[in-house]
Design brief:
Layout (H helix, E strand, L loop, with lengths): L13 E7 L17 H8 L2 E7 L4 H10 L3 H4 L30 H7 L3 E7 L17 E5 L14 E3 L2 E4 L11 H18 L4 E6 L11 H7 L6 H16 L23 H34 L6 E7 L12 E3 L9 E3 L1 H8 L12 H4 E7 L11 E3 L3 E2 L3 H9 L6 E2 L2 E2 L9 H4 L10 E5 L2 E6 L2 E5 L6 E4 L15 H17 L28 E4 L4 E2 L12 E9 L4 E7 L4 E7 L2 E8 L2 E9 L3 E9 L4 E6 L2 E7 L12 E3 L19 E9 L1
Parallel strand pairs: 1-7, 1-8, 2-12, 2-13, 3-4, 3-7
Antiparallel strand pairs: 2-11, 4-5, 5-6, 8-11, 9-10, 14-15, 16-17, 17-18, 18-19, 20-31, 21-30, 22-27, 22-31, 23-24, 23-30, 24-25, 25-26, 27-28, 28-29
Helix pairs in contact: 5-8, 6-8, 7-9
Length: 680
């Protein structure tokens, strides 16, 4: 704490760690973006930007690694917050869905060293299993278990203050709030408590921005309308040019090509261009508001005399998010309000991750590259203001960095439990441009996508596919695969990855998939072995007799008739995972909940009368919907439905856990002749 600011004699710095959610590498101004982020840009101007920093490609694993300094599987969160078990029913150590007892959080370590510890924002590392921030070292908390909201009227809004469930309204919350602002308001309240206690403070701000459902005040959205009509092709080129000018990337690295699935902007109708502009305007408003909140935090620290001796670290949990596919989602009577659902989609995600390939979920650079800004006036020399630091880093490095600047140590044991040794290294030498002293490669695995980075060499692969090799000094945009010409290097790096996977609880590879399947992919004994189901209106199947869809593609063929089509045709699962084929506002929708995300495709307006719909969830998460023999819509879910839903199947309504966004009054209006489900 700054000497004299509170009368404290403790000269150790305060620490603030800020994590954005689904923010792409190039989305903020100081990393090439056109979105106005003056407060982050100012931190970068007066601090250091790391140009080759990495996350783990997904929200929960990144949070686990950030909190603990371990690879996510070592901390127990190799995938999302669902517990997975092997074929004998034993929990898989790397896929417990929650922080385990062989790690400590940075809050636990710093609290033991005399820091006042606080957190605001999104937790998402196992509160559903009883693992909470107030029990993992944080003295003060205002948190959400898993995010998914911005306004008090958002359907999933629920806040926890120091362990007490406040819901979304009522004292001590303000009458109306926007989560991005609320995290900072309470963060500064907690800073004041630390100052009153005459302790240095550690504050973790885990923004849910800019994660879907994208929501922002209408006036913020209005400022951005029309400003993305140049389209993703032009804007990607402009971001790339700014990155080159800033020195963030090397001119030898070409801009990655527009993805095959993404259409040329010039090929779109004026109506579609306006729709896409609206989506990106909402995204920009969410990012702008997040930047404004960071400005409020910085001003608050300055006003309290704490800014100069506070280390601020800013980063994102994964790359831009292509979930919901090429079309994205723009739903609701007022898109961007509390009741709407907006996803940025694949087209704009390609812009978010400029100049890299792929997105969230993937271990290519588009999935794992993040900004990292370090700002600490008293601890980083002014000569480094605005400096770019090219040494590779990873979120496992944040814990050791915090420990070093705080003069704290990582314990061998905690509460009588031995701990897994730290994997990361301190970034503090990099603040001054000195070597980090890393002696081991960096590793990744998520949903079978995997990578290893050793010096300049990166080995990377998609799930189930062969390794590719890139020289990141010459080709960080991963355009020139050298695997065929460097087989010995591929073999050596692959062996290092295998060693990591064996020691870090990554195995069994695919352990993130269903606990309802054994190692051969067959249904577990308590589930149906049937692969074809012929159903009619009113049929209900419990979990044991419903289609065993975990990890399997399937096709639904439904024949129905109605004068006023509305309601659920068939649904299996609930609010955690499953699928639904339903009619909403006269349009046929096929929705899938998988890998913690919701993806849907929609057919045009139905006419009254008889129809036949064919909906398919294919390998890799490919979605398709056909109506009356003609293709109607397609999309891309993150994956197959990895875990067998707890809820069963219903034809003609969904009265258990709701899979879709419809109300409980969802019985189909009309007659369902037949529903046929075939598992691959």
């Amino acid at each position: 704490m700054a000497i004299g600011a509170t009368g404290s004699s403790d000269p150790r710095p305060n620490i603030v760690v800020i994590l954005a959610d689904d923010l792409g590498y190039s989305d903020i101004g100081c990393y090439g973006g056109e979105i106005q982020t003056p407060n982050l840009d100012r931190l970068a101007r007066d601090g250091v930007r790391f140009t080759q920093f990495h996350n783990t490609a997904r929200c929960c694993p990144t949070r686990a690694a950030l909190l603990t300094g371990l690879y996510p599987h070592q901390a127990g969160v190799g995938h999302m917050t669902e517990e997975q078990r092997d074929s004998s029913g034993r929990p898989l150590a790397g896929y417990s869905g929650r922080l385990n007892d062989r790690c400590v959080t940075f809050a636990e370590a710093l609290k033991a060293a005399g820091y006042f510890t606080a957190m605001t924002g999104k937790w998402h590392v196992g509160q559903n299993h009883g693992v909470t921030p107030w029990d993992r070292g944080f003295d003060r908390t205002l948190t959400a278990a898993a995010g998914g909201f911005y306004f008090p009227d958002s359907p999933r809004a629920a806040l926890f203050l120091n362990g007490k469930n406040l819901g979304s309204r009522g004292a001590p919350l303000p009458g109306e709030w926007y989560s991005t602002d609320l995290w900072i308001e309470y963060g500064l309240k907690f800073v004041d408590e630390a100052r009153a206690a005459r302790k240095p403070f550690f504050l973790y701000v885990a923004h849910n921005a800019p994660h879907f459902p994208l929501q922002a005040p209408a006036e913020d959205i209005a400022r951005w309308r029309g400003k993305f009509k140049a389209g993703w092709d032009v804007l990607r080129q402009e971001r790339y040019a700014r990155q080159l000018e800033m020195g963030l990337i090397d001119k030898a690295w070409p801009l990655s090509p527009r993805p095959d699935a993404v259409p040329a902007w010039s090929s779109l109708s004026a109506e579609d261009q306006d729709r896409y502009d609206h989506i990106m305007a909402i995204y920009a408003a969410v990012v702008e508001r997040m930047d404004r909140s960071i400005g409020t935090l910085v001003s608050g620290l300055r006003d309290r005399g704490e800014l100069d001796n506070t280390l601020i670290l800013f980063m994102s949990d994964n790359g831009g998010n292509a979930e919901s596919g090429v079309r994205g989602r723009l739903e609701g009577s007022q898109p961007g309000d509390a009741q709407s659902t907006v996803f940025v989609g694949e087209c704009w995600a390609a812009l978010n991750n400029t100049p890299f390939v792929r997105y969230k979920h993937y271990t290519d650079e588009g999935g794992i590259a993040t900004p990292l800004i370090a700002h600490w006036p008293r601890g980083i020399s002014a000569a480094r203001n605005g400096a770019l630091e090219p040494q590779p880093g990873h979120v496992i490095d944040i814990m050791p960095t915090c420990l070093e600047v705080a003069g704290a140590s990582y314990p061998d044991a905690f509460k009588g439990r031995s701990l897994t040794p730290l994997e990361g290294v301190s970034l503090r030498p990099g603040f001054e441009g000195k070597p980090l002293g890393r002696t081991r490669p960096l590793f990744w695995e998520h949903e079978g996508n995997r990578a290893v980075l050793d010096g300049k060499w990166k080995l990377v692969a998609l799930a189930g596919q062969a390794w590719r090799l890139y020289d990141t000094v010459k080709d960080r945009t991963e355009q020139n695969d050298l695997a065929a010409s460097e087989p010995d290097r591929v073999k050596a790096l692959a062996a290092r990855w295998d060693e990591y996977a064996a020691r870090a609880n990554v195995l069994p590879l695919g352990g993130w998939r269903s606990s309802a399947q054994n190692s051969r992919g067959n249904p577990a004994p308590d589930l149906s072995n049937e692969t074809q189901f012929a159903l009619k209106m009113g049929d209900r199947l419990d979990r044991a007799h419903a289609p065993a869809i975990a990890g399997r593609p399937f096709t639904i063929t439904a024949t129905f008739e109605s004068d006023n089509p509305q309601g659920v045709i068939v649904a299996q699962g609930g609010s955690a995972r499953g699928y639904a084929l339903f009619v909403e506002n006269g349009k046929l929708v096929f929705l899938v909940r998988t890998a913690g995300e919701v993806t849907q495709v929609m057919a045009p307006q139905l006419t009254k009368g008889a129809h036949t719909a064919v909906a398919r969830l294919g390998r890799g998460g490919a979605l398709s919907l056909a109506l009356d023999g003609k293709p109607a819509a397609s999309g891309q879910a993150p994956s197959l439905i990895a875990t067998m839903p707890v809820d069963g199947l219903e034809v003609g309504s969904d009265q258990a856990g709701l899979v879709g966004p419809y109300s409980t009054d969802n019985q189909f209006r009309g007659r369902i002749e037949s529903v046929r489900i075939v598992l691959d």
